[in-house]
Amino acid sequence: MTQAQYREQIQEPEPLPFTPEVDARTRDAYERVKHVIPASEWPLFAPEVDAIRRLKRACNAIILAHNYQTPDIFHGVADVVGDSLALARRAAETDAEVIVVAGVHFMAETAKLMNPDKTVLIPDPDAGCSLASSITGADVRLLRQAYPGVPVVTYVNTSAAVKAESDVCCTSGNALQVVEALGVPRVIFLPDAYLASYVASRTTVEVIAWHGKCEVHEQFTADEVAAIREGTEGLVVIAHPECPPDVIAAADFAGSTAQMIGYLKSERPGRVLLLTECSMSDNVAAEAPEVELVRLCGLCPHMKRISLPKIRQALETLQPEVRINPGVAARARAAVERMLALS
């Protein structure tokens, strides 16, 4: 079945019944999310969690979930959670025969690059990314012509076709490290203009940027941060480097989603404003209920295309499967592997 055919057929499966047995088998999951999912709502999630766990065992499957997934997925069924770098690493290490990526399409492509002989599933093939759609492989080739000999560093938030035209990939967590590890005076950095600005502000390497932006993080403003600070005593502001430069300047800490979580766990601030995707705040609240989270977040419509019923359906049908042209995959894989070797 092609992805186009799957899109025509895909629909949310019929709800599963909530029984005392399901409740007992999923009680451990509820204990992890009880601070963010009311008890009255858990019967909606528990049957799906129970079914997905059963299907994972039957298929020898593993679920990789990004930090922006909702708590029912992140804490309920995921085997590996984290930012793009963590998921890329674990995708390269897993012994599972089937990999389900609870994230967006470029993440599923990355998992397939690192596991070419395994079945990689994306529960909704239309889960995209504004950054990934902002640039094509042809764009990269034109940039190479304009700047001959300058290495191309490409954010993982890109398609396999773009990675294939690149020298090395990076994530928001290791972008600075990757740029400086190349030992060159200047680089082309794609596609996030704000992440490029963040890296440029912290290195002597000249950074030639593209114009892509994350539709979630570009919404935050420094004026909003200032207004919330003024009315909230003892506030610690933590921003993702995909935010505009003036927002990062107004924050107390900036870092990838994994670095944000590491900061919260090590510093344990009492009151925090997280400038990132909404579900990450929910997942942090589930793990650290003692931290007061002041909510100003952005909702990623692409991440929210992934749901428990769609994950269940993917495991039941082993569709939709991610496939990449072998020639493109070989070159894209090399760029990802160079990143993993440097970080």
Describe the structure.
The structure is a single chain. This protein is α/β, with parallel strands linked by helices. The chain folds into 3 domains: 3-127 and 302-317, Rossmann fold (3-Layer(aba) Sandwich), CATH 3.40.50; 132-213, NadA-like (Rossmann fold); 217-294, NadA-like (Rossmann fold), CATH 3.40.50.10800. 45% of the residues lie in helices and 14% in strands. The strands form 3 sheets. Strands 2-1-3-4 form a 4-stranded parallel sheet, with helices on both faces. Strands 6-5-7-8 form a 4-stranded parallel sheet, sandwiched between helices. Helix 4 (42-59) runs parallel beside helix 16 and helix 6 (84-93) runs parallel beside helix 7 (105-114). The model is unreliable at 1-10 (pLDDT under 50).
Unreliable spans are 1-10
Principal-axes geometry comes out as globular
Question: What strand order characterises the main sheet?
Answer: 2-1-3-4
User: Could you tell me how far the N terminus lies from the C terminus, measured between alpha carbons in angstroms?
Assistant: 38 Å
Helix content: 40-55%
* SS element count, helices: 17
Task: Calculate the mean pLDDT score and round it.
Answer: 92
Q: Quick one: CATH class of the largest domain?
A: Alpha Beta
Rg, alpha carbons:
20 Å
The CATH homologous superfamily name of the largest domain equals NadA-like
Taken in chain order, the helices and strands follow as HHHHEHEHEHEHEHEHEHEHEHEHEHEHH
Structural class: alpha/beta
Q: Hey, roughly how much beta strand do the residues contain?
A: 5-15%
Major β-sheet, in short?
4 strands, parallel
- In total, how many beta strands? 12
CATH topology of the largest domain: Rossmann fold
